[in-house]
Amino acid sequence: MKQNSSSAPVIDFDTPALRMHRKIRSYKDKAAEVGVGVGGISVIVAILLIFLYLMYEVVPLFKSASVEPIAEYQVPKTTVAPDNAKTLYLAVEEQGEVAMRITNVGEVIFFNVADGQVVKREQLVLPQGVDLVSVASEGPGSAILALGLSNGTALIVRDRYRVTYPGDKRLITPSVEYPFGSEPMVISESGGLIEKLAVNNAEQNLLVSAVTNDKKAHLVQFAKEESLFGDEITLVRSEITLPVLDSKVHSILIAPDQRWMYLASQQGQVDVVDLRDPDNAKLNARLKVTEKNSAIADVKFQLGGISLLVGDMTGAVSQWFLVRDDQSEWALKKIRSFEHDSSPVVVMLPEHRRKGFLMIDAKGELDIFSTTAHRTMLTENILEIQPRIATISPRADVLLIERVDGVVQTFAVHNEHPEVSWSALWQKVWYESYEEPQYTWQSSASTNDFEPKFSLMPLAFGTLKAAFYAMIVATPLAIGGAIFTAYFMAPAMRRKIKPIIELMEALPTVILGFLAGLFLAPFVEHNLPGIFALLILLPIGMVAFGFAWAQMPDKVRHAVPDGWQAALMIPVVLLVSWFALGMSQPMEAMFFDSDMRSWLSNDLGIPFDQRNALVVGLAMGFAVIPTIFSITEDAIFAVPKHLSYGSLALGATPWQTLTRVVLPTASPGIFSAVMIGMGRAVGETMIVLMATGNTPIMDANIFEGMRTLAANIAVEVPESEVGSSHYRILFLAAFVLFTFTFVVNTAAEVIRQRLRKKYGAL
Amino acid sequence: MRESFGSWTRTGSPWVWLNAGAVAISVVMVIGLLALIAVRGLGHFWPASIIEADVRAADGSLHHITGELTDSLTVPAEQVRASGVAIPADQETVTRYLVKIGNRDVYGTDFRWVLKDQIENADYPEALMAVERREWGNFYGYLISVKQDGQVIAQQAVGENSIWPEFEKRIARALTIHEEIYQIEKHEIGRINYAMERLRLKQRSLELKGKDTPQAITEIQTERRVLDAEYKVLQQKLGDLYVEANRDSFVAQAMDGQQIEVSVSKVVRAFQPNMMHLGNKIVFYGEKLWEFMTDEPREANTEGGIFPAIFGTVMMVLLMSVMVTPFGVIAAVYLREYAKQGFVTRMIRIAVNNLAGVPSIVYGVFGLGFFVYFLGGHIDDLFFPEALPAPTFGTPGLMWASITLALLTVPVVIVATEEGLARIPRSVREGSLALGATKAETLWRVVLPMASPAMMTGVILAVARAAGEVAPLMLVGVVKLAPSLPLDGNYPFIHLDQKFMHLGFHIYDVGFQSPNVEAARPLVYATALLLVIVIALLNMSAVAIRNHLREKYKSLEM
Asked: Best mutation site among B23, B28, B400 for testing chain A: the one with the most A CBs within 10 Å?
């Protein structure tokens, strides 16, 4: 033996190199700790990021509008009679750069919105000695103007703006066109000053209506006839006799479908004229549209020409449209009125692209309203001096006002999402042409003047309906199965069952959805009586088999070890299913005139879709079963065994032990399982997308489909324009889903954590 | 009776049996579903016999029909009677067959329902052939003649089979030419187009930076001329090949006696199933299966293979696992090894649970808004201004799809890794620390290696989840038909900005958006089967690894 103790090499642990090495190791350790910490926290960051980003997209929906002044300048003067010329009409073009002023001396001035610089002057082609008296626009979003002249004729013009980019800079060249020639059309054969007029240019006919200074109302139809070569249109004139009118007309409006015409008198009455039969124009109704006998201040069509927007001298603002009742009779009804104080309305400006309007009153206050959402976007005093005439650009972003003192003020308007309000999303809304207020989701259509219908109610209803039917299918099967697996089943069998359930959980929902849509839906439709028979026969068959099994001789019964009853049940289930489905057609022939589907719809009046809630319930139930099953099974299995042993030792049957001891202990866990299952059913997309017709209806009928929030997002997000109201509402739908599942999952998790603590104590 | 029903009920036994039944129903549903997909999916590739029969219509006239019987349905006789077809009064049910008659170019539809009772003189003549074509679906009928440049080379009467070898020879020739054309169009011209596009972007980029000197422009012009010249040569070659390909045609007689001439270049494969014996059929089956797995889709995805979808899914899943693994593992390590068990860990656990429970479509919406439009839009502004206004990363694509799915699957990895870490006994860690290792060293050298199978389990489960997830992908990157694979020979080889095809989306798209659902259905079943097999295998391997791990640490704890 050597003497190690004395001759052992002395190792110096404090060399600079080793110190360095230790330092590096310690740094690495610290770095790892920080890195791992950041990684852990980033999970919370991720969930917060989702939450905040969804919020960030949703919040602009509920912002109000705002205006800011751009410029203020003297109105550009005409060359003829510069001090006496009056503005008859104002307009701003698409880009918000150039404005147009039509004056009563027949001169059209195009000027810059920003500074009032004249861009171009144009003299209208008027016959010698004839004056321009009145101007009327066809309606919001149209460039067609009718000019009323002093000899009973009218001229149709259109403003055009050609945009070019010389040297990469935008140049707008305005001009006035005469789509039907520069020859004025005769409206009143007896002549007279045309004081008020209206025009509507449809594919077949051009309608012009006018009231002359002798209080006569005229309506003239010009039928368009193409010449032989199709390159020229000739107008064939015919006069339509209007029902007698006796009051002073404030405005005339012709609806775009040329079926209805409205004559508003200054006293606040509106005559609704039915033009369906041009040879026999009928007065549909005459009714008061203003409050407290006040006079009309302004009346305009809303975009689309269905609604009338009425503002009166007492400051009341309201929307009216024709509603058809049960007898197919049309009646003009007041749909909603808008909040405003009592100062008289001066001008109403309907937007060109959306269902909304601006209103300016006598004290210079601007109000921006959205009709569908019934929302006041803005109330702000913007003028010191009373306005005379105003206009809004087609994009509703530039407002141009001429005051009574001849000064023009321009404003930039920011009003991004007027279509949305809480009431429009969650309450009934009376949409244009609907008979009554309704919940409707219809986000887009092919026409420009479409009123988007953004009610989330049908979608929320559809979501809950789908989840409800899925839970009806899934909960009993999953909980029952979990109880048996956790409490009664033999361990050997349990080891085989659990992977099957895990596989069930892993099945992609796109496969379940595809089978539901292409296999299950036609199968259910074809075997409808059999499916219902199955629901009744399966439990009966199981209990009957159980009872029969109890009557078997011991030898047979003991051949199957305890806890293997589920295996015995498999043939029973198969047999009963085969029997029930085999019975389907004989039953259909016997009870339902061989066609249960038509029996349902004809005899019971229940509509039937092939892809319906029953199919969704079965398919989505299948998807939810494993979620509920696993968590329930864990909860029941985790109940300490000594509790059930004690109960069994006291003489309780296994079932009694289960219901009185085990289930109460595990109930919070089962509850959280159901919650999580519910969360999954609510958010499931592919199954509902494929197994329903995706029609947003509100009907609890099991034989009809639905559209859920999730499916709606999947269908509509790809085609919605980024940043539009529609896009943001879809984000709102996602946000609703997110919050719902967040609440459900957090609650379930908290319950589970409590449960774990409780078992720890036992 | 051993026991009265009343006393049997009082013990609660019926409830036990009902619970047992619930398990049985669940099992039957799973197995039944798998069996259904397997049978329908695998059956598709088997060469079905072609039936020739006469069908007696309601007015007594006879129609000749040829085609494959694809489905049958039994309906109550009353329903059929209601539609005006006379059925004997004593008959209660009627069987209907769905016959695939093919020849969509001639009849407008591929399928026809025929009542069993109306079929007369059913026969399976050996000379009947089925021709798979590149357009208009299958053709069924008799081969009459083969033509070259419009001149009849060989002909035969209906029912004979003498010119079949000649026909097959010409198909083989056309297929070779087609393959050549495909190579040129897809790869060589594709490469030139890609290079041209890069040149355009280069020029634009120089312009934006103000470096578009005449010299640089000339260089680009020269390169462009070289490419143009190459392109012209290829174009010439293609023209010649097309002329060659269209040389041959064949005439065949359809079921109503019409004779139809079809160019041989349109033929994918021709066969005579009624003549095949079992061995031939098995070989044919193998060929079709191979085609399905390796070929590109034809005819709006209703025919051909699904290779691009398989490839896209694999690419996406690989990228996703590269991203999800570190993130998930670090989070799990934090929860188990570093964090003090308290409020913060409780919050993280709740966050993990919520990430797992948030509907997948919400991830899609988030991915589209945040990743694609927000991040992608900024990346484009910063790094790819030359391509604007066409977006590079500001549009759904492979990278964003992978990141979105990584976020979606991260809880799976966290939960699995955490379980693995929890199973490693304390003693192992303490041993390492006692020997002087730092915490990071213990983690890196001892704990993580031991937990690696658990991480593997987590990643496999995440992959299985991602492979089957469709809803978010619909928003962030999949398309029904991608013109090229996201991995190819053109620099930079992996195209993260490209859109891709995906098995799950393929199922949805072909099954529900296809114009000819009936024809596409078998293919959808086959695709579904493939997806199920992949996912089942992934899951089973994950479970196996997990169980193995459990066993291993059980012995360690002893």
From this structure: B23
